[in-house]
Amino acid sequence: MKDTQKILDQVQELENLRGEIPTYVYFGGIGGRNLVTTRKSLAKVPNSPEVDILLSSGGGNADDAYRLIRTFRSKYRIVNIIVPFWAKSAATLFSFGANRLVLHEFGELGPIDAQIKKDDETEPEGEIMSAVDVQASLTQIEARSREGMLEMFTKLRSEDNEEILKIGRRQLAEMLLDYSAKFYQPLLQKVETVELGTMARILNVGSMYAKRILKQYTETEPEKIDKLISFLTYDCPDHGYVIDYDVLRSYLPNVMKADTEPFSPDYNKKLSELSIDLMLADIGDVIGFVKDLKKKVEAVEVRALKVEPKNETKNEKP
Length: 318
Fold this sequence. Notes:
- The protein is of the alpha/beta class.
- Helix content is 54%, strand content 16%.
- It is built from eleven helices and ten strands.
- The protein has helices at 2-17, 32-43, 62-75, 90-95, 131-157, 169-189, 193-217, 222-235, 245-248, 265-280, 290-306, and strands at 23-27, 48-56, 76-83, 86-87, 100-103, 108-109, 115-120, 123-130, 255-257, 286-289.
């Protein structure tokens, strides 16, 4: 509770620096329960021109990420999404819909390859794997097969090879194809076609939402949208790979640093303190307008103070 109170105090100071613009706190997963919480809290306030959303999330459901940004964009004309620490996976999708995507130095987005829990007889909790892993493995097999074919064909047909084979190109190609097929057959047999299709579908859901959100809510060039989605889906080496301002600025026109207008160096300094505390704190889901959240925390603390421990005394015999 103390960590939550401290963080909300910092958020309140950030809101004060922004004047009349309300700050919405979204520290938690992207999912149905938090989506309902957000819709209920937004329904209680009148429409206003602008909102700041402080976002810290490890991700969640891609469908709910789209529903969430649609909810905010229908409520506000200007939606500023500020990332002091991280916004990964589905939270990256959500942040793509901002009018202004504001990143602190430590703020980062992430790849949009979904994390899938795979049934495993040896692991009771199941094994977590990336949807892109199977795709990448197959791509590596295909690429290595082509390289091996070309390398062997070139070597055997080269005039510099003292042991050049007196064999026609067609016959040689058929021999190499047969060799390559037999060599990679055991590897390909390990690829489950159903699993491959499932992973491809899951990846497609994330990339389609990314394209839809960027086209619907930003002025990003179509070519840059395609390049960004391809990079985030297939080119990142790990699910935790850091996508920061320096990477995003070459793709997105709406990404900016937290020390530039309409924000300020003072805002960025306070955001730095919040970023560090978010890295260290374990506060669970904190969803809502900062003023409402502070009232709830203060009410809990007051109730806790009113609860007095009972003093039990034994009746002593005279």
